[in-house]
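Re: your question about FMN reductase

S., sorry for the slow reply, the queue was backed up all week. Below is exactly what I fed in.
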Amino acid sequence: MKLVVVSAGLSVPSSTRLLGDRLAAVAAPAATAPEPQPADTQVIELRDLAVPIAHTFTSGFPEGELAQAFESVAAADGLIVVTPVFSASYSGLFKSFFDALSVNEPDALTGKPVLIAATGGTGRHSLVLDHALRPLFSYLKAIVVPTGVYAASEDWGAEGLDGRIERAGNELAALMAGLSSTVPAPRRDSFEEVTPFEQRLAALRPAGE
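Result:
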């Protein structure tokens, strides 16, 4: 089982990379449960590939580390993609990577589980998940997990972020493992015994009738 994290963070350290790492820390062990070994996790830092990505659009094909990154994405059982928000949308570097990937590996994301996430300075940009990221990966024929995770500056250390990370990571793990449902079937003995209406009515009649 292989999990790949694609991070478009630019700074070092990066809150974008941190969010990707925290999501992977939940998804990787859960994807192989109850096996003792977690999924193999690889992180692709797009800031290190900025120049090769730009060259791809002029040369027509990827080289070196970028080609290896494309191969890793295509071979992954699941993806976590994280971008900082620029101008109310994903970053240009993030979009360029997936544009180049779709040109060189058109079916790389077809049917692949993808967890979308983003970071930003304010909570007002949280709609980027559903207005930009989800349509992009749906177009690329990926299976986008229901829960996306957005982390604004004020979310770090605040109540709520951990729960979203846990829920999204487990949803990705379930898709990676091929589970159809994470909700256990109800036990038969959890239902109350149903008494037919006729029996209830008879119990109310006076004796002898």
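The chain has one domain: 2-183. Residues 179-192 have pLDDT under 50 and may be disordered.

Happy to talk it through on Thursday.
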